């Protein structure tokens, strides 16, 4: 479910023992927000306010172990040009690099996003999932499956999948695979950020999004 910046204080989060923060990165109109709604509500939402950043809470059992996922739907390609607050990228345990299979431009922007994240996450080894969204739009495809798989291998992404936020194809599988990779990497977190850290993170996201909108 989408949360309106009050998610740190939700009692739903507190009783969980495993929690992760996943950042969605990609160009405008690749389907990040629709993907997040499909994850959290299992529904396709085509119309939404693009001027708002959103945090989506996803609760699921992966290998019979409950997990709480916070999907931060905040970062578009323009963020690379305006400066990214140091609180946002380092807070992520995993990163979904999303392009649309119908857009060569969004595919080309992935490499720059990847290196921006690597720069801010130096010294750590986050999980990267390269996701080609809109795979249901076969007649409009510009990027082949093999091209996506090759880029994932080149960047060292642990996960590569094509998804459809519209039909739900592979959407939940992305999150499940990310959790499995995080567990294998030994990055399990047993607590959410404390309230002050959560407040700083929320303010940082708001600051970044405001800068993008002004631009």
UniProtKB/TrEMBL annotation:
Protein keywords: GTP-binding, Hydrolase, Nucleotide-binding
Family matches, as Pfam families: Ras (PF00071)
PROSITE patterns linked: RAB (PS51419), RAS (PS51421)
Any single biological process term in GO: signal transduction
Entry-linked SUPFAM superfamilies: P-loop containing nucleoside triphosphate hydrolases
Keyword field contains Transport: no
UniProt keyword annotation of Metal-binding present: no
Subcellular location field: Cell membrane
Membrane topology annotation: Lipid-anchor
Source organism superkingdom: Eukaryota
GO molecular function: GTP binding; GTPase activity
Gene Ontology CC terms, in alphabetical order: plasma membrane
Positions of transmembrane segments: none
The protein, known as: P-loop containing nucleoside triphosphate hydrolase protein
Organism of provenance: Crucibulum laeve
């Amino acid at each position: 479910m989408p949360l309106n910046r009050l998610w740190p204080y939700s009692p739903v989060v507190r009783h969980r023992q495993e929690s992760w923060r996943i950042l969605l990165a990609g160009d405008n109109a690749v389907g990040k927000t629709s993907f997040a709604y499909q994850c959290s509500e299992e529904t396709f939402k085509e119309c939404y306010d693009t001027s708002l950043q959103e945090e989506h809470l996803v609760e699921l059992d992966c290998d019979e172990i409950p997990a709480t996922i916070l999907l931060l739907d905040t970062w578009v390609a323009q963020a690379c040009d305006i400066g990214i607050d140091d609180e946002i990228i380092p807070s992520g345990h995993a990163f979904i690099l999303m392009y649309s299979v119908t857009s060569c431009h969004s595919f080309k922007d992935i490499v720059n996003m990847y290196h921006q994240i690597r720069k801010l996450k130096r010294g750590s080894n986050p999980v990267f999932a390269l996701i080609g969204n809109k795979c249901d739009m076969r007649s409009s495809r510009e990027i082949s499956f093999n091209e996506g798989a090759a880029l994932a291998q080149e960047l060292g992404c642990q996960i590569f999948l094509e998804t459809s936020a519209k039909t739900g194809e592979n959407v939940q599988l992305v999150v499940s695979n990310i959790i499995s990779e995080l567990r294998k990497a030994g990055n399990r977190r047993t607590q959410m950020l404390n309230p002050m850290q959560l407040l700083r993170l929320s303010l940082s996201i708001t600051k970044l999004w405001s800068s993008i909108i002004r631009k």
